[in-house]
Specification:
Blueprint lengths: L1 H7 L4 E7 L9 H5 L5 H16 L8 E7 L4 H11 L4 E6 L8 H8 L6 E6 L8 E5 L4 H17 L2 E8 L11 H21 L9 E6 L5 H11 L4 E5 L11 H9 L7 E4 L1
Parallel strand pairs: 1-2, 3-4, 5-6, 5-8, 6-7, 8-9
Antiparallel strand pairs: 4-9
C-alpha cells in the first residue's frame, strides 16, 4: 500500500480493513464475554500498530483509518466499505500455495456492486516496478488499463508493454492451414492496433505491443507465461473484454489470472 501510494502520487486517504468472519459455538460465548474489550476493538488496535510501523509514505498528506467489520461475507463487507467511501483502488494480499487464497478478490470482481479497481499482491512479489504488462484486446477497457498503467509508470520510471493474444478457434481444426491462418490473424491484429492507437492520448500512442499466438493455451495462461518469462513486475488488465471478439475475453482472463500462483501483482481495472 505504501509503495503504490508513492507511485500514484494522488492518494489522499487510505483505509485498512479487516473483516471478522468468526463463528464460534455457544459454549465459547462466555469466553468472548470475558474479553477486556470487544473483539473488533482488539483487532483494530493490533492493525493500527502494524500500520504505524509499515505505512509511512514519503507524502505525509495521506490520512488513514483502520476499520474492523463483522460480516459473514468478506467480499461483500469490503465492497460495502469501498462503495461507501468512494474508494478507487482496493489492495488485497495473496498467500502463495495457500488453498482459498485469492477467493475474496475473485468474489469482489464478480459482484455487480463493486465499482473500484482491484490490485492483488502476492506475498512473494518483489519490491520493484520497472516493467509493466497490459494485455490488450483493443477495447475501451484496455484503454482504461493503459491509462492507469501510464500513471503508475510515470511515478516509477517504468516501461509499459502491451500484449495482444490471438488464438484459432478449435472448431476450425483440422480444416485450415494453421500457419497461414496465424499470419492472417496477426496482420488483422496489427491493423486493429493502428486504429486503436489513433484514439489514444498522445503519450500512449507509441507504447510497444507484442503479438502472441496462444497455441492451445488459454489467454490467461499465455499472459502468465509471457509475464513470467519476461520478468514483468505488474500486470494491468481491464475487467471487460471486447464484445464480439471471442479470441480475447479480458473479463474471464482477469479472473483466471487471479487463480494462478505466481509472484507478479495483478491490477484489474473496472
Amino acid at each position: 500500500a505504501r509503495h503504490f501510494c508513492e507511485l500514484l502520487g494522488t492518494v489522499e486517504q487510505a483505509w485498512f480493513v479487516h473483516n471478522i468472519k468468526f463463528e464460534y459455538p455457544e459454549e465459547a460465548e462466555s469466553l468472548m464475554a470475558e474479553l477486556e474489550r470487544p473483539l473488533p476493538d482488539l483487532i483494530s488496535e493490533e492493525i493500527n500498530e502494524r500500520v504505524q510501523l509499515h505505512f509511512q509514505p514519503d507524502s505525509h498528506d495521506i490520512t488513514w483509518e483502520v476499520l474492523a467489520t463483522d460480516n459473514a461475507f468478506t467480499a461483500q463487507a469490503l465492497t460495502n466499505v469501498a462503495n461507501k467511501n468512494d474508494i478507487g483502488l482496493v489492495i488485497c494480499g495473496k498467500k502463495i500455495s495457500y488453498q482459498g487464497s485469492g477467493q475474496v478478490a475473485e468474489k469482489m470482481l464478480r459482484l455487480p456492486a463493486f465499482r473500484g479497481n482491484l490490485l492483488m499482491v502476492p506475498e512473494t512479489a518483489p519490491h520493484r516496478m520497472e516493467r509493466l504488462l497490459v494485455p490488450n484486446d483493443f477495447s475501451a477497457s484496455s484503454t482504461k488499463a493503459l491509462k492507469i498503467a501510464h500513471q503508475i509508470a510515470s511515478g516509477a520510471d517504468a516501461r509499459i508493454t502491451c500484449q495482444h493474444v490471438y488464438t484459432i478457434p478449435m472448431h476450425y481444426f483440422p480444416y485450415i492451414p494453421v500457419e497461414g491462418f496465424r499470419e492472417s490473424m496477426e496482420e488483422q491484429a496489427k491493423k486493429d492496433l493502428k486504429k486503436f492507437r489513433e484514439a489514444l492520448p498522445e503519450e500512449l500512442k507509441e507504447i510497444s505491443c507484442e503479438f502472441t499466438y496462444s497455441k492451445g493455451r488459454t489467454v490467461a495462461q499465455t499472459v502468465y507465461d509471457f509475464a513470467v518469462n519476461n520478468n514483468k513486475d505488474l500486470i494491468v488488465i481491464g475487467s471487460k473484454g471486447r464484445s464480439g471478439m471471442p479470441a480475447v475475453l479480458l473479463g474471464s482472463t482477469a479472473i483466471q489470472l487471479l487463480q494462478f500462483d505466481f509472484h507478479v501483482p495483478l491490477l484489474v481495472v473496472r
